[in-house]
Amino acid sequence: MVDDELQNVRKRLLKINEKIKNYSSLGGDTKPFNEQEHKSSKYASVQEIPVDEMRAKLRAINQYIRDRAAGKDVKPPVFTRRAAPPPPPVERRVSHVVVEEPVEEIGDVPEEPSSVEEEEAATIELPALVTRGRKKTALRLGVGLDLGTAYIVASREVEDKRVFVKNERNAFLSVRGDQSTKELLSKLKIKYIGLGEKLYVLGSMALELADIFGRETQRSMNMGILNPSEGESIPIIQLLVKNILWEPREKGEVCCFSIPAQPIDRDQDTIYHRGVFEGILRNIGFDPMIIDEGYAVVLSELEAQDFTGIGVSCGAGMVNICAAYKSMPVQSFSITRGGDWIDKSASTVLGIPMSRVSHIKEHGLDIKNPKSREEEAIAIYYRNYINYLVESMSRVFGKSSDTLQFKEPVDIVFAGGSSMVSGFISVVKEEIKAAKFGFSVGNILHAKEPFTSVVRGCLFNAIEGGEKK
Description:
globular, 6-stranded mixed β-sheet, 16 strands, alpha/beta, 469 residues, 14 helices
């Protein structure tokens, strides 16, 4: 259990600190070392290690934490003598949030500068707006919110056509709610909340801990909508949304959020999902607006095509597809296979946690050139997933009268986290060659920024909608 592992980490760190206090001559208030007293103490059974060696090991542990926080795929340090194992890697740019019933934000820990922070602060361009008579301000009103199964992403314009984007992994992991666990999580600057008598680690660190300790993360959303199997879904997603969004620039500022289109392979009701998030945004002070996820990709990526073409958002829970003609959506639908389906399928055949599969996917996998048994299994399911996606598109578009107005070849653009694996577009092109859509296919494109494509489309729509009010 992760709770026991966390406690073991804490106990081992305390033992190392105690040894440093006893053996080191640094510090005016340090009590002189008494060998007899030490031998009779509760640490007598611990192997004695020189101070310099202990400090070197602590430096190695700290370097491992910094490397993991920077996104590097490094192995934990291995020590030949008994020493404390490295604590879970620290997630940079996170808030330490303690929440008791009812959910309530308490405070932040100081943020540390890092390369991760610089990357998150990078700005990207927004497509040109087509509304006439738009406001002549450097900071137009409107916020975009991509409510993904795996990530929540928010965007806001910081200057004309330049956008600030930030994200949080939509995941949590339950741990024991005692005081010692709280102190350890606080010391390691791990974001968590308290609900009743339980603690929940939030965000990217939930996935890190799940991978380290062989557990599965918990999700507030499943297949694109709120997860009914997790009783904590609503309070946790409410807190995540509140923390990732900015304060409205004025009362009633529009926040456009993405919702999945109706799936063709499953009965799914989005009314409750939509209503919950509309309520959350109104409580924050925004005027909520919705947009189909696939249509958001069209707005974000197909400006050069006069917003005519097909946008495909490949997310963790679903794939959303929208065909549009001159910025008007003509057909939207979804399928309920996404990145999570790949993770779950590969996890079952490999006998490893889904969190481990996710880690492999996100660290250099090429589905056309797998290099291990694990990568081979993931690549097999990726190809099946792409085949299913293209067949579904062919089946829908081939029977649809709505897409008959496409007289010219139609470009198709792919976006979303599941499209970011190496080899994805190449395999898509192979599958589309054999498909029949009822119209000529033009270019097969990959979004300029696949991860932020949906949220930029949401922001585009929010600004347009706000200026039409």
